[in-house]
């Protein structure tokens, strides 16, 4: 993963989690996602799409990870099939607000929305498999909702 500019701690965590080298879709998508470019990733099942967006997200979270206490979720995966209650949406909005006068050191740093419960669970499983091997753990909370 070093050839696509993945931070060394993350590259090591990926290898320990069993991901030895980036797939074609991961190599192609990484620079765009890392720069914050909106993109659509489409390929057949099993080509690494989930990690294609997780790798740059986790990489972006690493520089500030040492300053954070993992008491609140830092990465949250949500299945939007069922609308979140207004109170929860407002709480998340406040946590995601980068313009707040006082920065919340425990704010949600990434919110991933996926179209199904199965993909929500897969995304969380992959993220946890990698995060488990990082020097400083990031907390991952998952909310999978169905109708």
Automatic annotation (TrEMBL):
Q: What are the entry keywords?
A: ATP-binding, Helicase, Hydrolase, Initiation factor, Nucleotide-binding, Protein biosynthesis
Could you tell me which InterPro entries the record lists for this protein? DEAD/DEAH_box_helicase_dom, DEAD_box_RNA_helicases, Helicase_ATP-bd, P-loop_NTPase, RNA_helicase_DEAD_Q_motif
Taxonomically, the superkingdom here is Eukaryota
Domain Helicase ATP-binding positions = 30-147
Which residues are the signal sequence here? none
Q: Where is this motif: Q motif?
A: 1-27
**What name goes with this protein?**
RNA helicase
């Amino acid at each position: 993963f070093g050839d696509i500019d993945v931070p060394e701690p993350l590259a090591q965590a990926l290898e320990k989690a069993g991901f030895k080298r980036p797939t074609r879709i991961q190599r192609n998508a990484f620079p765009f996602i890392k720069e914050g470019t909106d993109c659509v990733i489409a390929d057949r099942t099993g080509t690494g799409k989930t990690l294609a967006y997780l790798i740059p997200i986790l990489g972006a979270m690493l520089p500030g990870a040492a300053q954070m206490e993992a008491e609140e979720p830092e990465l949250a995966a949500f299945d939007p099939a069922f609308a979140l209650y207004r109170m929860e949406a407002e709480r998340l909005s406040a946590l995601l607000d980068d313009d707040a006068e006082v920065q919340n050191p425990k704010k949600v740093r990434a919110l991933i929305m996926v179209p199904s419960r199965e993909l929500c669970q897969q995304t969380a499983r992959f993220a946890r498999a990698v995060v488990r091997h990082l020097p400083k753990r990031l907390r991952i909370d998952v909310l999978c909702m169905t109708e």
